[in-house]
Design brief:
Elements (H helix, E strand, L loop, with lengths): L1 E6 L5 E6 L9 E10 L1 H9 L6 E2 L3 E9 L11 E4 L20 E4 L8 E3 L6 H4 L2 H12 L8 E5 L3 H12 L4 E6 L2 H9 L4 E4 L5 H9 L1 E4 L2 E4 L3 E4 L4 H10 L5 E4 L11 H6 L3 E4 L8 H9 L6 E6 L3 H8 L7 E5 L6
Parallel strand pairs: 9-10, 9-14, 10-11, 14-15, 15-16, 17-18
Antiparallel strand pairs: 1-2, 1-4, 3-5, 3-7, 3-18, 5-6, 6-8, 12-13
Bound molecules: zinc ion.
The site of zinc ion has 6 residues, from helix 3.
């Protein structure tokens, strides 16, 4: 038997016993080393999951334990990270498997695109950052930014921090992070933000105009920021960006917005702005692994818990002031 985290109703998380999985001909089984707690995990727990007894967890690293007869691209012993949505597996996102488990069945791993090898030198708990890093990276890739651009990132949770780390990796050095949590802003600085603004103490638009300069629009001063990444989930950020952004600026929304946002498309039209959405990962998932190999993103992980303390981990992850990524160490023997 193995342990497997499942949601059993709103706020109810169980560490259940499950049968050890056996791979079908096209499947692989991964012995999981570490799995991060995502903002969406917190949401799933609050809403009681998608369907009955939903397996949770999708940000994981581990080692291939076994593969089916038709799997030629993977072998037991290979260290890997997972693309949870590939091959329609939806691991930890409503599919029949979840990553907070000792052994994970990855269906149709033979397709390729599900599991990606990682270098031996990359520790498992850092490798598990590939998934959230991929989300922040995709947001940056969709924003049309180049070295020399001035960028503002709203929200310095794990996705905003991932965007900041990617911007630094891409040679974009003038990045301002805006958040309400001093702890998160410290992390933003550690990961490469040039300056930070605590929006509970300072008006971000006054500060952005100081840091990025001003650009006139019909005589009115707009912020000189070239591009915005919205990773906060606060509707007001979108309204404010459209109002304060300069002409030809870009906005990418990667945060989950539950509420409709009332915006002026007059601004979008007059400023010839580009607005994009960003979800999931870069076309090449392994790009996040490569970045993790180039840069030490360990400051992003602020909490680590063993699997038995998953509920505590989820509670910490639901507190925006707690810090960065909560990592669950599932098996420290898997290296
Ligand atoms: Zn995630």
């Amino acid at each position: 038997m193995i342990k497997q985290v499942k949601i059993h109703g709103p706020g109810k998380v169980g560490l259940d016993d499950a049968e050890k999985p056996e791979p079908g001909p096209r499947d692989a089984v991964v012995r999981v080393a570490a799995c991060g707690v995502c903002g969406t995990d917190v949401r799933y727990v609050r809403m009681g999951g998608l369907g009955r007894a939903m397996p949770l967890g999708h940000e994981l690293s581990g080692i291939i334990a076994s593969v089916g007869a038709e799997v030629s691209n993977l072998k037991p012993g290979i260290r890997v990270v997972l693309n949870p949505t590939a091959s329609a597996n939806m691991i930890g996102n409503g599919g029949s498997e979840g990553g907070f488990t000792q052994e994970l069945l990855v269906r149709n791993a033979a397709d390729g695109g599900c599991l990606f090898p990682i270098p031996d030198a990359l520790p498992m708990h850092l490798a598990a950052l590939s998934e959230p890093l991929g989300v922040g990276m995709n947001a940056v890739d969709r924003t049309d930014v180049a070295p020399g651009d001035k960028v503002a990132v709203f929200g310095a949770g794990p996705i905003g921090l991932s965007a900041i780390a990617t911007l630094r990796d891409r040679g974009i050095t003038d990045v301002v992070a805006i958040d309400l949590s001093p702890r998160r802003l410290e992390l933003a600085s550690a990961l490469g933000a040039r300056a930070t603004v605590n929006a509970s103490e300072q008006d971000p638009w006054v500060e952005l105009k100081k840091l990025h300069g001003e650009a006139a629009l019909m005589g009115a001063p707009m912020a000189g920021t070239d591009a915005y990444i919205e990773a906060s989930g606060a509707g007001k950020v979108i309204t404010d960006v459209l109002q304060n952004a300069k002409a030809e600026s870009r906005l990418t929304v990667v945060a989950l917005h539950d509420q409709s946002v009332n915006v002026s498309f007059l601004w979008v039209m007059m400023k010839q702005m580009t607005i994009r959405g960003a979800m999931e990962y870069p076309a090449d998932y392994s790009e996040a692994v490569q970045l993790l190999t180039r840069w030490d993103l360990s400051p992003m992980i602020t909490h680590r818990f063993p699997l038995e303390r998953i509920s505590e981990g989820i509670e910490v992850a639901s507190d925006p002031n707690a810090g960065g990524k909560v990592m669950i160490d599932i098996d420290l023997e898997v290296r």
